[in-house]
Amino acid sequence: MIIGAGPAGLTAAYQFAKHGVTSTVLEATSTVGGISQTVQRDGWRFDIGGHRFFTKVGAVRDLWHEILGSEDFLVRPRLSRIYYGGKFYDYPLNIRNALSNLGPVEAARCAASYAWARLRPPKDQSSFEGYMAAQFGWRLYRTFFKTYTEKVWGVPATEIQADWAAQRIKNLNLLRAVTNALLPRRRATSITSLIDSFEYPRHGPGMMWETCAGLVQARGVQLLMEHPVTSVRHRGGRAVSVVARAGDRDVEVECSSVISSMPLPLLVESMDPAPPAEVLEAARGLTFRDFLTVALAVPADSAFADNWIYIHSPDVRVGRVQNFRSWSPHMVPDAGMTCLGLEYFVFEGDDLWTAPDEELVSLASRELETLGLVPAGAVAEGWVVRMPKAYPMYSQGYQRHVEVLRSWLEANASNVWPVGRNGMHRYNNQDHSMFTAMLAVENIVLGTAHDVWSVNVESEYHEELDEASAPTPSPQSD
Questions:
Q1: What is the pLDDT of residues 100-124, one digit of tens each?
Q2: Interval 380-430: pLDDT, tens
Q3: How far apart are CA 53 and CA 61, in angstroms?
Q4: How far is it, in rounded angstroms, from Cα 171 to Cα 439?
Q5: pTM of the complete model beyond 0.85
Q6: Residue 464 φ/ψ, nearest 5 degrees
Q7: 12, 2 Cβ separation under 8 angstroms
């Protein structure tokens, strides 16, 4: 039994099928791919965020190319910038550009601030603020990281745990960023945040998961869409069946094992019999940041060339802007147009989440003009897509809550395997979400003892390692 038809869930189904094991996939929505889906509106395609296909986990890269043929992948140059204070900063760092924008006096102040932080590092580096100030100095932290991060998460940077920064920006600090900028050919892919090219499916990441869904169904996998899970029944320390809602009736499916990518707190809350009060309290302590995209069709020559631009300006609410034509020209139906995706980080039920679509399209159009990215009157059409529970929040105490839920599941439902971003309440990239599913399948089918929870945490899984040193699943047969 597999809960969720996103990258982790469909990877699990695909791997089970290769081992000759039949499975059933329950998906709550009408679309496969989860946050990695590609939305289609009137012939236009756009992502829920942007999804680079880059990994140093060789088994995941092989699987991508096993599902899609080489002709379906484009190799795209990365072009991304930071917008702050009315200026654009190249990202990855370009020394000449940064010095030109900052000016010699401010650049010297930033360097001095970094040197001071190395001599007198922040005493508390358990928060995002303390961690980033130690890595880049207080001045650069306040200039670039604080505003954007608080826009993304909706809480002060002191309330975000350092785990998120350490996971997303592995081993990167000002000194290494400058070294990378001065020596661009030296280990150019050693730091994930600094890669300068990536693969991308012609029709977006959804192409991968739509194709994968077709392949697993052809191999006998039952894929049940619009079947949200309502309960996981367990006894004797193991899950025995999963109940999903299908229209106005319940569907119960017996199971020998469960791979779950549904949000970890919702999984635990669905367990029947229910966990004790302290476990349910820990589940309620895990929260999520929600997300909405406003996609706007504009003339290609009125837009920018970047794949995406980070908007650090506090003057607008948009956090990032994607240009999907720069990801793939096949994403747009008109050669003279492009599709821009304006990303707003929200909480479900807040003013942006509940605003009518036409108001959000108007807001996004005005903010593009305010930023000077697109002239007034250039927007031809607009669409809005809301994505609940897009990002698990690394708020204070989240590690303790996750450990409580994990320990309870291991003791009371040992055949339930949480995988993926929401399933493990960990901000994994697509490749690591897939890898957790691959390892869980091996544990179930081959009896291996992979520590799935160590993916993207322990050093042997970190992306800066060479491919040869990354763990790979055991050999398998079709």
A1: 888 889 889 988 998 999 999 999 8
A2: 999 999 999 999 998 889 999 999 999 999 999 999 999 999 999 998 889
A3: 8
A4: 25
A5: yes
A6: -80, -5
A7: yes
Determine contact, residues 476/18, Cβ cutoff 8 Å: yes
In degrees, to the nearest 5, what angle opens at C-alpha 78 toward C-alphas 77 and 82? 155
Token code pair at residue 408: 């309870």
Q: What is the dihedral of CA 435, 439, 444, 449, to 10 degrees?
A: -160
pLDDT digits (tens, 9 = 90+) for 248-296: 999 999 999 999 999 999 999 999 999 999 999 999 999 999 999 999 9
CA distances from 163 to 117, 130, 247 (A): 19, 12, 40
How far is the C-alpha of 390 from the C-alpha of 289, rounded, in Å? 6
